[in-house]
Specification:
eight-stranded mixed beta sheet; about 20% strand; Spore Coat Polysaccharide Biosynthesis Protein SpsA, Chain A; globular; about 210 residues
């Protein structure tokens, strides 16, 4: 039986940040290292990281010891988020029955939320055969991470631009949303102002100093 994998999409050109978002500092490590380390706390068989923009520079500065982590370099990342999503799914299709999709620029997602989505997804994965999705939401706004099970039955060839997984999830008859009080599921970092606000929220929530 194939086991669920996780996938972090980190290929974008960070145009509004003017700095590679995976290399932003977050709790004494890079943002990408933080996100990977969050996922290593759960029993994924593989953690796939899809890079693109500044991939070589990112690999030179990111240090991860977990053997489950696989880095992929998407050469078509300039075509938008959907291109790196398709690239990752094509790689994962022969290896995993399900993937948990994460975006590198949502670091405020709490580990308990990731765990809740993962456990709900695994439970459903063992009970149904058709494609499905489990997605958290905050104040009725759907967010990340998204657990997509039996995704090989979906058609992702038509995904285009920066719209990401929304059309893919829209194909599903079996889709569940989990209510959370976690603003992190919808709070992404696109600009320096977003970054400072995210650091402030994290500090208030945890009591830990910025960075």
């Amino acid at each position: 039986m194939k086991k669920p994998g996780a996938m972090i999409l980190a290929a974008g050109n960070s145009s509004r940040m003017n700095f590679p978002k995976p290399l932003l500092q977050w709790q004494d490590q890079t943002l990408l290292e933080y996100q990977i380390n969050q996922l290593t706390m759960l029993p994924f068989s593989e953690i796939i990281v899809v890079l693109g923009h500044e991939a070589e520079a990112i690999l030179n500065k990111v240090s991860i010891g977990d053997p489950r982590v696989t880095f992929l370099n998407c050469q078509t990342y300039r075509e938008g988020l959907s291109s790196s999503l398709k690239f990752g799914l094509e790689y994962a299709a022969d290896k995993h029955d399900a993937v948990l999709l994460m975006l590198v620029d949502l670091p405020l997602i709490q580990l308990k939320t990731i765990k809740q989505v993962f456990e709900a997804g695994v439970t459903l994965l063992n009970g149904v055969c058709e494609p499905f999705a489990i997605q958290p939401q905050y104040e009725n706004q759907k967010g990340h991470p998204v657990f997509i099970g039996h995704f090989q039955g979906l058609n992702w060839s038509g995904l285009d631009g920066d719209i990401g997984a929304k059309p893919l999830i829209g194909q599903l008859k079996n889709r569940e949303c989990i209510d959370t009080n976690d603003i992190g599921v919808i709070f992404d970092i696109d600009t320096p102002q977003d970054y400072e606000k995210a650091l402030s929220i994290y500090t208030r929530r945890t009591g830990n100093p910025k960075n």
